[in-house]
Amino acid sequence: MRNGFVKVAAATPRIQVADPVYNRQRMEEQMREAADNGAKLIVFPELALPGYTCGDLFLQSRLLEETADQLRALVDASREVDALVFVGTTWPEGGKLYNVAAAFSRGELLGVVPKRHLPNYGEFYELRHFAPGNLSAVDVEFTDWEGQHYLVPFGSRILFQCEEMEALTVGAEICEDLWAPQPPSISHALAGATVLVNCSASSESAGKSSYRRSLVAGQSGRLISGYVYAASGEGESSTDLVFGGQNLIGENGTLLAEAALFQNEITYGVLDVEKLQAERRRNGTFGPMDSQGYEVVSFSLEPEETELPPVSRTPFLPAGSQPASAPDYGQTQERFEEILGMQAMGLKKRLEHTGCRFAVVGLSGGLDSTLALLVAVRAFDRLGLPREGLLAVTMPCFGASDRTYRNACALAQAVGASLREISIKDSVRSHFRDIGQPEERHDVTYENAQARERTQVLMDVANQVGGLVIGTGDLSELALGWATYNGDHMSMYGVNGGVPKTLVRHLVRYWADTCGEEALSQALYDVLDTPVSPELLPPEDGRISQKTEDLVGPYELHDFFLYYMLRFGFSPEKIYRLARKAFGEDYRAGEILRWMKQFYRRFFALHFKRSRLPDGPRVGAVALSPRGDWRMPSDASARIWLEEAEALEE
Length: 650
Fold this sequence. Notes:
By secondary structure, the protein is an alpha/beta fold. The protein contains 20 helices and 20 strands. It folds into two domains: 291 residues, Nitrilase/N-carbamoyl-D-aminoacid amidohydrolase (4-Layer Sandwich); 222 residues, Rossmann fold (3-Layer(aba) Sandwich), CATH 3.40.50.
């Protein structure tokens, strides 16, 4: 349960209709099994204790009495189980019978949530036997297995909150409640529930499983919540219906787990309630919180370690975007096309607005400038402008390698751009003489003078043709402040500012795999195989000597840190834990920690560079534009983040 992670389970027992003793035994077995597997929240189907398909047997007092006895036995059995459990059962009260979800933990019944919306159409006729539940909770009496009497809340508006982790707040609804125009889960979430459970007995029909899947995923996304849906399965009467046991676990629009139909499984998932809370905080339209009329019932759990779910190494990338040779990109193609389209449309609008028919790109032969060139090509094509108006400028200096020079030339030729080679060596040497900088002193002045000279050349060339300078710097470089202030930091429109380095690489590879132009593909593949470098230090034996990731750290780690810090506001401890899970096979814990400290230091110290960024399109959920996406003072202290990082153990 540390860091907000909670393992949950949706369990479908094999039952016998109208045999609460047998059903309780099967549920007790599954309850213990799920708890032994680490589940802290366990949900059973609707009316699972007597059986949903009892029909008019629900009018028999003998069945109701035995069901009540077996509920007492099941509650008592939970003394040995460290979990919050929801069971679908019957509840006679005030001369009426209710279809309820009984919530209990550690031998104590905590509350009873009645079904609000009773279907009475098609194959359903629940109003024949049950009364709709009340909203506000009232106290009802419960007698436990030992004969002790105590009062418990009965009503729809009950939330169950974990004492050890308040972010784990649970609300319940029952089957049809989710299908209704205004499900109880809406008010539960607005009252503070981060996890919603549903005890269901939804029967099967052709195509219904797909709709049910979208309903659960959609509701979890709409309410920024976890959703645990337990469905009745084999064992219910098949006189007229079939029940598939389609257990579903959703989290904020994503389906984490699903049971195979007709298997009567226990389905597990790990929810991150801390992430859900963070998402709600940043979503200005969620809320405001309204807990009026709700009763909050506390329960306690042992704060045991929860095994983390699989963690993607590339959170900025769509799932399944690790291309093989000549891959079938499938749905990933749609996502990559969408990103490239947003970049190109942003540039297209800027060119249209300024009336420019020319654009200038400093083409180094590296990844970022390659992607900027490709995006500019797409924008020119959409405008119907000749590609010759796209000026690719290569500016060799002290650190330029033969390989990147050849790639720059090949790329320009392959896309039909105009290529200009402008050596800046003499200009930089003249500048060194002006400021008294020895050429043999390879310090930050030596490096940045080249970067600023390149930017000056690009700006002046753009003036010559009446065009725009297209910025090439990416989101990862902006986060780390890995840009020369008023050098490559500056442009007239930055197309890559919303794209992290890991995604830049995949977009370029995607273009290489799908463009169908052999010369362009070969040039792109060679760019992909070239080490990332600003090429500001002289090559060694003709090879790149300055490798960015040796200096600032692996971009795959920094992108990982960036995503979870900005997207969800996670603490260094939680990000470190996730990173060890994702990268443990390739990086030692000490390496991950070292680069994470580097990330925090650079992110805070160099924010002033981000405060003066050129315009550029936002393409994902994480962006650093000072005009909207990320606003922080340039002199904010990194102290508390670094102190927490320093305290972490390798």
